[in-house]
Amino acid sequence: MARDYYGTLGVGPKASDQEIKRAYRKLARELHPDVNPDETAQARFREVSTAYEVLSDPEKRRIVDLGGDPMESGASAGAGGFSGAGFGGLGDVFEAFFGGSGGTARGPRGRVQPGADSLLRTKLTLAECATGVTKTITVDTAILCDGCTGSGTHGDSQPVRCETCGGAGEVQSVQRSFLGQVMTSRPCPTCRGVGETIPDPCHKCGGDGRVRARRDITVKVPAGVSGGMRIRLAAQGEVGPGGGPAGDLYVEVIEQPHEVFVRDGDDLHCTIRVPMVDAALGTTVTLDTIIDGPTEITVDPGTQPGSVSVLRGHGMPKLRSTVRGDVHAHLEVVIPSRLDGKQSKLLQEFKNHRDRDQAEVVSTGSQNSGGLFSRLRDAFSGR
């Protein structure tokens, strides 16, 4: 399972960059090995430093928000704990306080970077979720520039070393802190940490190696999906800077409400209104199910209000399985509110033949009570 980086810093998923930095500063003051030599605190400091490194990086934070873990690949957490002469975790403290990194310079980063993941949403009907569907969706993402094929240069021109940082990708400065004078390094503002510039950039992409474009993608939605599920399309996301490898595209399913059925996992629920006479004498009702079409439901003679008729195996399919849920038909007995003279007379004759049927007050604790209070009692007692 992906680690809860937000929980480690004590912030919510919607926290701003400044809130994340403040939370890290507070924890770093309490847990840094120079202040708290306890082994538990040191382990906690490493976790906090890792969380800050991930959430302060827009690309890594996007992966976290998509439900992934950018550190699963084995990348270092940046802090690495307290390592004595190397001041392993101290660099992250400097970065939190001064906006740069302390200690050894990191060097230029590669101009070619992996692309970010993308997220789209698509609406599906209940029938489409039940049977599966192939949909064509339009995406707007960065794609490889066909003018320079990702190099970012125009014609035969080549990148040159950055004059501001001398190719280091960083510029350094000295600042005063409570620990004395501290040398910090920041990404070079001219080359943005790459260490080189492009004097004659591609006229189409401006040197980025990628351009934005709309394209159609075919998505195969399997049977049994439900709202909130995401379908991953590998390498269909954003192409990275410098023509780097594309990220993944996630298509999130939004399940639209159905006019008859309410979904509960793999089961479907519906309400069937049965006239009082049909409930007493028994009848059959045709229900148009999602997959199997019209199916008859038998209403037994003497059916009481609130009864449920279950159609086994007529519900939604389980994802990647041949097993299906059930359809629960909740029977609502309809009592006429207006009767003409003839109808009233017939019902009165019927009542005269049912002398034993009398209105009575039944204890809510009675086992034979099937009213509202009885159902509430059973619900709270777990029956």
Automatic annotation (TrEMBL):
CXXCXGXG motif repeats lie at residues 145-152, 162-169, 188-195, 202-209. Signal peptide: none annotated. Binds 2 Zn(2+) ions per monomer. Its main location: cytoplasm. Keywords: Chaperone, Cytoplasm, DNA replication, Metal-binding, Repeat, Stress response, Zinc, Zinc-finger. Residues 132-214 form the CR-type domain. One of its GO terms (molecular function) is unfolded protein binding. Participates actively in the response to hyperosmotic and heat shock by preventing the aggregation of stress-denatured proteins and by disaggregating proteins, also in an autonomous, DnaK-independent fashion. Unfolded proteins bind initially to DnaJ; upon interaction with the DnaJ-bound protein, DnaK hydrolyzes its bound ATP, resulting in the formation of a stable complex. GrpE releases ADP from DnaK; ATP binding to DnaK triggers the release of the substrate protein, thus completing the reaction cycle. This is Chaperone protein DnaJ. It comes from Prescottella equi ATCC 33707. The gene is dnaJ.
